[in-house]
Amino acid sequence: MGASFTASSAAQPQLIRWHYLWYVAAALAVLVLAILYGNVWFLNWVHVMSGVLWTGIDLFMGFVIGPIIRSVAIPVRKEFIIRLTPVTLFLLPTLSVLTGTAGWFLAVRMGFIQLPWPQFGWIAAALVLITLMTIQGLGYLLPTSVRVCLELQKPNPDGPKIGRMMSRFYYVVASQGLMQVAIIIVMARLATGV
Hints:
Keywords: Membrane, Transmembrane, Transmembrane helix. The chain crosses the membrane at residues 20-42, 48-69, 81-107, 119-142, 169-191. This protein is mainly α. The protein contains 6 helices and no strands. α4 (74-109) runs antiparallel to α5. The protein is globular and about 55 Å long. The termini are far apart.
């Protein structure tokens, strides 16, 4: 029994957990339902919940987990990243898409798109921030995380290659954190009236 436990605990987790697509489909179904139903409260709930989760996870990973990972030994870092990436592979992209899409439809329903300038500037700021964060997340952070995780799963990972990938990664994560704080300021302004 002890030998089988050791062998199973040493096994690498599957990088892409396809069964998570059911959760993605369920989240997207809730978003579509909120859009089609047309209830502002329900659409706002989807926007706020996905935004809180996305922002909270982003900030926690960037400002708490990131510094800890950089300070631990390479084997610990490797184990942590190999286990974290499969969990966040579908979660963070889904939350970013839900947040931005629900926010857009909410802004349209609440008439924010027709606001005059300078009030519309707050909407424009939100659009720019969500677009930049989504492009960074889907176009850089996600592929880099997958490449690092794949490299770490090799019998002899290329440390310098991982180091090069991760050096830029931390700056992008830091910029994501700053943009998350900026969008919280914008959302607080929108919530209290422009």
